[in-house]
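Thread title: Can someone regenerate the structure for this chain?

I was given the following input by a collaborator and told the matching structure tokens would be attached. They weren't. Posting the sequence so someone can regenerate them.
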Amino acid sequence: MEKSTEEIPLIVRDCVGCGFCCIKTQCDVSYRLYKTVEVCPQLQWHEDESRYKCGLMLLPGNLGFEYRKELYAGAGCCSGLNDWRRDVKKRSRGVMSHARPIIPAMFQAFLKAYGSEPFISGDATTLILSNYASQLKAIEYSEEEINYIIGSVEHYITSNKTSMFKGFM
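Best answer:
Regenerated them for you:
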């Protein structure tokens, strides 16, 4: 008896905005921006539509377009067996907790542009970040928060450097 070599077709359905994917598995974009987090801070509940949306995909202009392209916006959902598809609702804070400050999308866009600029030296960046840390301390951020914020900013900048300039920071 011959075994069938046919593949089982993947059933793709429209995304219903249940939040399952973003809550259960961090995407590559989220990892680049936030390192390892429990839940991506860009996951946003839209009460008027009763669904979750990715804040990165909602950014205007080319930046939003690039995120939508990278994250396959409109390609649909292949997690048809998850129960959340039939029960779209805002999940409890326990499921959605963010333990760290969120870097606003407009600042992320600035850091991406800053990081992609090849002629800003690592020394200049280090001095700027040191000054930034001092200013955060002056407005009473804790040492832990300052370290997290500076680490996140460094991550945004270095992850957007071209490989030729990675050694400069």
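The first helix runs from residue 20 to 24.
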